[in-house]
Amino acid sequence: MEQSIAALQAGLLRDYYKWFSKYAKGKKPDKKVAWVTSFAPVEILEALDIYYYYPESYAAVIAASGKEQPLLEESENEGLSRDCCSYSCCIEGCLVTEKGPRGVPPTPDILIATNNQCNTLPNWWNILAKRFNVPLVVIDYPGEIEDREVACAYVGKQHKELIATLEDLSGNKLDMDILLKLIDNSVRCTEVWKEIIKVRMEKNLPITALFDDISFLITSRCKPETEELYRVLLDDLKSEENKPDDDKIKAFWTGYPLWYHPNRHFDEALDNIRITGSNYITWWILDYSGNDAFEKLFNAYNYTFLNLSQNTRNSRLKSLIEESGAVCTITLHNKSCKCDYISARNIEVPQAEIEMDMVDREFLKIDGAELRIDILRENLCIK
Question: What is the CATH number of the domain that holds 131?
Answer without folding.
Answer: 3.40.50.11890
